[in-house]
Amino acid sequence: MAVYTVHEPPLRAAEASADPERFVFVRDGFYFWAFLLTPLWMLWHRLWLVLLIYVVVAAGIQNAMYYAGVGAVAGAVAMLLIAFLVGVEAGTLRRFTLARRGWRQVGIVGGSSTEAAERRFFDVWADAGSGKPVAPPASPSVPPPLPPMPQSPDIVGLFPEPGASR
To answer: Does a structural domain hold residue 152?
Structure first.
């Protein structure tokens, strides 16, 4: 089961509450296409700042490796590792970009697919009535503390005290 974060867009002019059609669900986990086609994936999701940082870092690493006399294979391995890192952190990069654009995270939901997660989130969201997600249920009342364990003077934990008789 995948875990998704739910993001609410900033309000438009003359809007009392955000349109549920505009909510974005960001899956947590590895993004294969972000790993395989890193710059294109960033363009597709409009991650302009992230793309700029990626290009600067990748060019810097390539130049540093070139001037250090490292071979082309090591440069390719370095770029592969950067692409893997982007694939692992792609969800975080999307959440970062959404937060910079004024989107609010309004919930976390799990589901076997994006559609199942949406259905699950909006069922709870609609039940709230006010358009805001329902707070998680309060934890059950705390049980009374257990009675103290009888202590033997010559036993500490599972080990006898030094010098105590057996």
So the answer is: no
